[in-house]
Amino acid sequence: AQERYTSIREKPAETLCGTHITLKMNAGLMADLPSLENSGAEGVGLFRTELQFLIRSHMPKRAELSALYGRVMDAAKGRRVVFRTLDIGSDKVLPYMKATDEPNPAMGWRAVRVALEKPGVMRMQLQALIRGAQGRPLSVMFPFVAQHAEFRAARAEMDKALDRERILGHPLPAEIEVGAMLETPSLAFAPDAFYEEVDFLSVGGNDLKQFFFAADRENERVRRRYDTLDMSYLNFLEGIVYRCATLGTRLSFCGEDAGRPIEAACLTALGFRTLSMRPASIGPVKSLLRRTNLGELRDILHEERARGTQSLRPAAMDYLRSKL
Ligand code: PEP
Ligand code: MG
């Protein structure tokens, strides 16, 4: 099926109305790196660093990690790689760390919550990232941030790590950007100062959607119950796009929905201009975006919203089908 898309691999992801959409890939394993060459990705929008911790039977050493991060940046050849710091807890339990028994791990002691209370591993990881960059620009993103204060605390750890490396005489990244995943609804309502302080935000739709609808993403009985194109969710996402646009915050979307062509087209109609997805989705998404007129799709969104339609999907599908 991938061959079908090779003809557009070098072509830009440009809509019929001439808007460029930046398509990046999600990654986490060394096996993903060849896709940087053959998917047409413009960078790595989400590098899930916990995968490197999950595939080992022991805690990786700092030197091992910095070599690995360096190889990822080598493979990206100057394109940005957004490294997400460890997102453990919840469904991802490290075999060599004491598991905590929690009634609701997905909304429990996970990700940046663990990192801020037990900062040892995060400090080691931040150092490994700085060393791996070897003076190149570095992008780091903190997962599951739920409030401004958590982001500030995480960013302070990054500043401390930079200070330490400077004192030790290691080269510092030429440029550093520190962002957050927007995957808890609370961040959509965070103060303006938060939006002004982050270097970028990336919507983690997998988690954001489960918390928006209060529907467990791991629970077969409810996980497909609510449509991503449900108007309430689209209204919510549009609010985030609007805040980012007015406050000057760079925004992307990196949940699985970014890799589903119809969802991707609707996300761009809402105003998202950067989508990050599994490499195999880039061809199909690009192919549909190149036939989409965002203005027309927006008109349909507004009409359906005015009519009180539950989900944009039927109307979006009718429109997008007519473009095939
Ligand atoms: C998300 O929540 O959408 C996301 C990209 O992170 P993960 O799927 O790893 O939780
Ligand atoms: Mg997530």
From TrEMBL:
Gene Ontology molecular function terms on file:
phosphoenolpyruvate-protein phosphotransferase activity
Keyword field contains GTP-binding: no
Which top-level group of life is the source organism from? Answer: Bacteria
* Keywords in alphabetical order: Cytoplasm, Kinase, Magnesium, Metal-binding, Phosphotransferase system, Sugar transport, Transferase, Transport
UniProt entry tagged with the keyword Transport: yes
**What are the subcellular locations of this protein?**
Cytoplasm
Chief localization: cytoplasm
What family does the entry list?
Belongs to the PEP-utilizing enzyme family.
Designated name of the protein: phosphoenolpyruvate--protein phosphotransferase
Please tell me the species this chain comes from: Roseovarius ramblicola
Q: Which residues of the full protein are shown?
A: 424 to 747 of 747
